[in-house]
Amino acid sequence: MEIGMYTIEIQRPTTRELFTAIKDAGFSQVQFDFSSVCDEQMPLRFEPGLLQEIQRQAERNRVEIVAVNGTFNMIHPSVLEREDGYKRFASVAEASRELNCEFVTLCTGSRNTKSMWAWHEDNLNPEAWEDLLASTDKVLEQAECYNLILGIECEPNNCINSPVLARKLLDTFKTPRLKIIMDVANLFQKGQAYKENVRPIMDEAFDLLGNDIYLAHGKDIKEGEDLNPTYAGNGIVDFEYFLEKLDEVKYTGGMLLHGIPNEHFFSDSVTFINDIISKHKKRLDI
Length: 286
Known about the structure:
The chain has helices spanning about 15-25, 50-60, 80-100, 125-145, 165-175, 195-210, 240-250, 265-285, and strands at about 5, 30, 65-70, 105, 150, 180-185, 215-220, 230, 255.
């Protein structure tokens, strides 16, 4: 299994230095965010030669771009904001194809106008769901145009905040262009982040979504009443069991580490995941 990372969690002044640092940290895959090399996450247009330079540096360092962030607030209360998001998504979708990446991530969004990653009490209203369906229709048009696969994940602060709702969205559209990013740390609701809940919560998510997983995220969560994400190995996620569940659904992709607040923790996280993968392989060989 290849190990990857999320490019916004490492900062370098140039594209060349960024990918060199990614390789040196022990990663061979990335979920790429344009804010790593641009002034914004979802540019409407790109500087001449930038996409070619990204691809060149990725190839030079043998780093595969397995996902590109296309996240905008799909249920923002403002129609104008959502329309701006559609335009920016179209730009990123086209750019993803130029980077030879077929997978673009989504954020199902929040009614919170300050942050699409922050909860709002109206997220689960019928009107929010209808806006999500309309936005999903729009981005699927781009996916069809550029032959892309789009990824959603359960996010406790978003409109899709549970495996049940994720399943509902997949069943609504019934398209192979909409898949799941499985981030176990995001499956917990407030008050659930305790060791005894880890496997049952994982089991439910895999029962509902396992066959639609396109990408696995390796984020962890600290034990307690609140939701405190952290880097792999520093929380309660049972990564050995995670790998077992991924094997059951015949997942063949990588593990993209996420939730690393400081480069200082890259080494610990990579070592931890490599050890888990090694133990898992030995168990399979017995």
